[in-house]
Protein backbone atom coordinates (compact mmCIF):
# COMPACT_ATOMS: atom_id res chain seq x y z
CA UNK A 1 0.00 0.00 0.00
CA UNK A 2 1.38 3.39 -0.91
CA UNK A 3 0.28 6.72 0.62
CA UNK A 4 1.61 9.95 -0.86
CA UNK A 5 1.57 13.24 1.02
CA UNK A 6 2.71 16.64 -0.17
CA UNK A 7 5.72 18.29 1.44
CA UNK A 8 7.26 21.68 0.88
CA UNK A 9 10.89 20.61 1.24
CA UNK A 10 13.18 17.83 0.14
CA UNK A 11 13.10 14.58 2.04
CA UNK A 12 15.71 14.29 4.82
CA UNK A 13 18.69 12.01 4.34
CA UNK A 14 18.17 8.58 5.82
CA UNK A 15 21.08 6.88 7.57
CA UNK A 16 21.57 3.18 8.21
CA UNK A 17 22.02 3.88 11.90
CA UNK A 18 19.63 2.09 14.24
CA UNK A 19 19.27 3.70 17.67
CA UNK A 20 17.29 2.00 20.45
CA UNK A 21 16.55 3.58 23.85
CA UNK A 22 15.94 0.21 25.54
CA UNK A 23 16.47 -3.47 24.85
CA UNK A 24 13.00 -4.21 23.57
CA UNK A 25 11.98 -0.68 22.57
CA UNK A 26 13.77 0.41 19.37
CA UNK A 27 13.08 3.90 18.03
CA UNK A 28 10.75 2.68 15.30
CA UNK A 29 7.02 2.64 14.70
CA UNK A 30 5.16 -0.60 15.32
CA UNK A 31 5.20 -1.31 11.59
CA UNK A 32 8.40 -0.92 9.60
CA UNK A 33 8.23 1.43 6.62
CA UNK A 34 10.36 2.51 3.70
CA UNK A 35 10.37 6.09 2.51
CA UNK A 36 11.41 7.56 -0.80
CA UNK A 37 11.14 11.09 -2.18
CA UNK A 38 9.34 11.64 -5.48
CA UNK A 39 10.99 13.58 -8.32
CA UNK A 40 11.29 17.26 -7.42
CA UNK A 41 10.89 16.62 -3.69
CA UNK A 42 7.18 17.49 -3.78
CA UNK A 43 5.75 14.24 -2.55
CA UNK A 44 6.90 11.41 -0.35
CA UNK A 45 5.65 7.88 -0.85
CA UNK A 46 5.43 5.74 2.28
CA UNK A 47 5.18 1.99 1.74
CA UNK A 48 3.92 0.14 4.83
CA UNK A 49 4.85 -3.53 5.27
CA UNK A 50 2.47 -5.65 7.30
CA UNK A 51 2.98 -9.19 8.61
CA UNK A 52 1.83 -12.00 6.31
CA UNK A 53 -1.04 -13.84 8.02
CA UNK A 54 -0.99 -17.55 7.18
CA UNK A 55 -4.31 -19.27 6.36
CA UNK A 56 -5.67 -21.30 9.27
CA UNK A 57 -4.98 -24.66 7.60
CA UNK A 58 -1.22 -24.07 7.97
CA UNK A 59 -0.08 -24.83 11.51
CA UNK A 60 3.72 -24.87 11.16
CA UNK A 61 6.49 -22.95 9.40
CA UNK A 62 9.77 -24.73 8.60
CA UNK A 63 12.62 -22.34 7.69
CA UNK A 64 14.67 -23.30 4.63
CA UNK A 65 18.41 -22.83 4.13
CA UNK A 66 20.23 -20.56 6.56
CA UNK A 67 17.04 -19.10 8.02
CA UNK A 68 15.47 -19.15 11.48
CA UNK A 69 11.94 -18.50 12.71
CA UNK A 70 11.72 -16.21 15.73
CA UNK A 71 8.62 -15.75 17.87
CA UNK A 72 8.66 -12.02 18.54
CA UNK A 73 8.34 -10.74 22.10
CA UNK A 74 5.03 -9.14 23.01
CA UNK A 75 4.77 -5.50 22.05
CA UNK A 76 4.91 -3.02 24.92
CA UNK A 77 1.54 -1.26 24.92
CA UNK A 78 2.20 1.07 27.86
CA UNK A 79 4.79 3.77 28.39
CA UNK A 80 7.15 3.74 31.38
CA UNK A 81 4.68 6.04 33.14
CA UNK A 82 1.85 3.56 32.61
CA UNK A 83 0.10 5.50 29.84
CA UNK A 84 -1.67 3.25 27.31
CA UNK A 85 -0.08 3.75 23.89
CA UNK A 86 -1.94 3.69 20.57
CA UNK A 87 -0.84 0.94 18.16
CA UNK A 88 1.13 3.34 15.96
CA UNK A 89 3.09 4.73 18.93
CA UNK A 90 3.94 1.45 20.67
CA UNK A 91 7.55 0.35 20.27
CA UNK A 92 8.20 -2.75 18.22
CA UNK A 93 10.38 -5.41 19.87
CA UNK A 94 13.51 -6.70 18.12
CA UNK A 95 13.97 -9.72 20.34
CA UNK A 96 12.38 -13.12 20.64
CA UNK A 97 12.88 -16.87 20.90
CA UNK A 98 13.95 -19.19 18.09
CA UNK A 99 11.15 -21.66 17.40
CA UNK A 100 12.26 -23.00 14.02
CA UNK A 101 15.56 -23.50 12.19
CA UNK A 102 16.92 -24.41 8.80
CA UNK A 103 20.56 -25.30 8.16
CA UNK A 104 22.20 -23.03 10.76
CA UNK A 105 25.17 -23.40 13.09
CA UNK A 106 25.38 -20.35 15.38
CA UNK A 107 22.05 -20.62 17.21
CA UNK A 108 19.84 -23.38 18.58
CA UNK A 109 16.16 -23.93 19.34
CA UNK A 110 14.93 -21.88 22.28
CA UNK A 111 17.72 -19.30 22.15
CA UNK A 112 16.61 -15.78 23.06
CA UNK A 113 18.06 -13.53 20.38
CA UNK A 114 18.23 -9.93 19.23
CA UNK A 115 18.02 -9.23 15.51
CA UNK A 116 18.45 -6.34 13.10
CA UNK A 117 15.45 -4.00 13.19
CA UNK A 118 14.72 -3.90 9.46
CA UNK A 119 15.64 -7.51 8.66
CA UNK A 120 13.48 -10.49 7.86
CA UNK A 121 9.93 -11.21 6.80
CA UNK A 122 7.15 -10.81 9.33
CA UNK A 123 4.62 -13.63 9.45
CA UNK A 124 1.63 -14.25 11.69
CA UNK A 125 1.28 -17.87 12.80
CA UNK A 126 -1.79 -18.90 14.82
CA UNK A 127 -2.33 -15.27 15.78
CA UNK A 128 1.23 -14.83 17.08
CA UNK A 129 3.80 -12.52 15.48
CA UNK A 130 6.93 -14.19 14.11
CA UNK A 131 9.78 -13.14 11.85
CA UNK A 132 11.77 -15.23 9.35
CA UNK A 133 15.42 -14.19 9.40
CA UNK A 134 18.70 -15.17 7.83
CA UNK A 135 21.05 -16.41 10.52
CA UNK A 136 23.38 -13.52 9.68
CA UNK A 137 20.63 -11.05 10.68
CA UNK A 138 20.73 -12.35 14.27
CA UNK A 139 22.88 -9.86 16.18
CA UNK A 140 23.46 -11.90 19.31
CA UNK A 141 22.16 -14.36 21.88
CA UNK A 142 20.85 -13.19 25.25
CA UNK A 143 22.00 -14.91 28.41
CA UNK A 144 19.71 -15.84 31.31
CA UNK A 145 20.15 -12.34 32.78
CA UNK A 146 18.64 -10.77 29.61
CA UNK A 147 21.20 -7.95 29.96
CA UNK A 148 22.69 -6.30 26.90
CA UNK A 149 26.01 -6.00 28.73
CA UNK A 150 26.17 -9.82 28.80
CA UNK A 151 24.99 -10.37 25.22
CA UNK A 152 26.94 -12.93 23.17
CA UNK A 153 27.56 -11.34 19.74
CA UNK A 154 27.38 -13.63 16.72
CA UNK A 155 29.71 -13.80 13.73
CA UNK A 156 32.07 -10.84 13.39
CA UNK A 157 29.96 -8.56 15.56
CA UNK A 158 31.39 -6.62 18.49
CA UNK A 159 29.61 -5.29 21.59
CA UNK A 160 30.94 -1.90 22.69
CA UNK A 161 30.19 0.19 25.77
CA UNK A 162 29.90 3.67 24.33
CA UNK A 163 31.85 6.58 25.80
CA UNK A 164 29.66 9.19 27.47
CA UNK A 165 28.87 12.37 25.56
CA UNK A 166 30.47 15.65 26.63
CA UNK A 167 28.09 17.70 28.79
CA UNK A 168 29.76 21.00 27.89
CA UNK A 169 30.90 22.52 24.60
CA UNK A 170 34.50 23.61 24.00
CA UNK A 171 33.41 27.11 25.07
CA UNK A 172 32.05 25.86 28.39
CA UNK A 173 28.37 26.04 27.45
CA UNK A 174 26.21 23.38 29.13
CA UNK A 175 24.73 21.12 26.44
CA UNK A 176 21.29 19.53 26.47
CA UNK A 177 20.99 15.80 25.85
CA UNK A 178 19.64 16.55 22.37
CA UNK A 179 22.50 18.85 21.35
CA UNK A 180 25.34 16.85 22.90
CA UNK A 181 27.07 14.92 20.13
CA UNK A 182 27.45 11.21 20.76
CA UNK A 183 31.06 10.05 20.62
CA UNK A 184 31.90 7.29 18.15
CA UNK A 185 34.33 5.38 20.34
CA UNK A 186 34.09 3.09 23.32
CA UNK A 187 35.33 0.00 25.13
CA UNK A 188 34.98 -3.48 23.66
CA UNK A 189 32.84 -5.62 25.99
CA UNK A 190 32.64 -8.85 23.99
CA UNK A 191 33.30 -10.17 20.49
CA UNK A 192 31.82 -12.89 18.33
CA UNK A 193 33.71 -15.93 17.08
CA UNK A 194 34.30 -14.29 13.70
CA UNK A 195 32.97 -14.44 10.15
CA UNK A 196 33.01 -17.73 8.28
CA UNK A 197 35.05 -17.57 5.08
CA UNK A 198 34.19 -19.29 1.79
CA UNK A 199 36.46 -22.22 2.63
CA UNK A 200 34.55 -22.80 5.87
CA UNK A 201 37.23 -21.47 8.20
CA UNK A 202 36.33 -18.79 10.74
CA UNK A 203 38.32 -15.56 10.74
CA UNK A 204 38.48 -14.31 14.33
CA UNK A 205 37.90 -10.55 14.89
CA UNK A 206 41.10 -8.53 15.17
CA UNK A 207 40.02 -6.65 18.31
CA UNK A 208 40.42 -7.59 21.96
CA UNK A 209 37.99 -7.34 24.87
CA UNK A 210 38.87 -4.30 26.97
CA UNK A 211 40.42 -2.31 24.12
CA UNK A 212 39.13 1.12 23.11
CA UNK A 213 38.14 1.54 19.49
CA UNK A 214 36.75 4.19 17.16
CA UNK A 215 33.92 3.12 14.86
CA UNK A 216 31.93 4.52 11.94
CA UNK A 217 29.48 7.15 13.18
CA UNK A 218 26.38 5.79 11.44
CA UNK A 219 26.98 2.09 11.98
CA UNK A 220 25.56 -0.52 14.29
CA UNK A 221 22.58 -0.91 16.58
CA UNK A 222 22.42 1.07 19.82
CA UNK A 223 20.90 0.04 23.15
CA UNK A 224 20.54 1.67 26.54
CA UNK A 225 20.75 -0.23 29.81
CA UNK A 226 20.88 1.30 33.28
CA UNK A 227 21.71 4.72 31.77
CA UNK A 228 24.69 3.26 29.90
CA UNK A 229 24.91 3.20 26.12
CA UNK A 230 25.94 0.12 24.15
CA UNK A 231 26.36 -0.45 20.44
CA UNK A 232 26.75 -3.64 18.42
CA UNK A 233 28.74 -3.25 15.21
CA UNK A 234 30.44 -5.44 12.63
CA UNK A 235 34.22 -5.68 12.73
CA UNK A 236 34.36 -3.90 9.37
CA UNK A 237 32.94 -0.77 11.03
CA UNK A 238 35.91 -0.47 13.41
CA UNK A 239 38.08 2.42 12.19
CA UNK A 240 40.98 2.38 14.65
CA UNK A 241 42.26 1.20 18.02
CA UNK A 242 42.88 3.97 20.56
CA UNK A 243 45.50 4.02 23.29
For this structure, the CATH topology of the largest domain is 10 Kd Chaperonin, Protein Cpn10, Chain O
Shape: globular
**Rounded mean pLDDT score:** 75
Count the helices. How many?
A: 0
Main sheet summary = 8 strands, mixed
Structural class: mainly beta
CATH architecture of the largest domain: Roll
- In whole angstroms, the N-to-C terminal distance is 51 Å
Helix content: under 10%
Per CATH, the class of the largest domain reads Mainly Beta
CATH superfamily of the largest domain: GroES chaperonin
State Rg. 20 Å
Unreliable stretches, pLDDT < 50, 5 or more residues?
A: 1-48
Q: What string, H for helix and E for strand, traces the elements in order?
A: EEEEEEEEEEEEEEEEEEEE
Number of strands: 20
Summarize it.
The protein is mainly β. It is built from no helices and 20 strands.
Amino acid sequence: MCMCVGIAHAAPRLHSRSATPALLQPMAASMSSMRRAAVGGRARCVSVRAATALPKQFKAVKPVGDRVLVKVDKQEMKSIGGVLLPANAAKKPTAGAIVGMGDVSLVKMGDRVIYSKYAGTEVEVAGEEHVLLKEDDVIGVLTASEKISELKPLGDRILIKMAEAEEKSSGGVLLTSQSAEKPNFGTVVSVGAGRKKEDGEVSAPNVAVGSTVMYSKYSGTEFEEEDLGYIIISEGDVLAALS
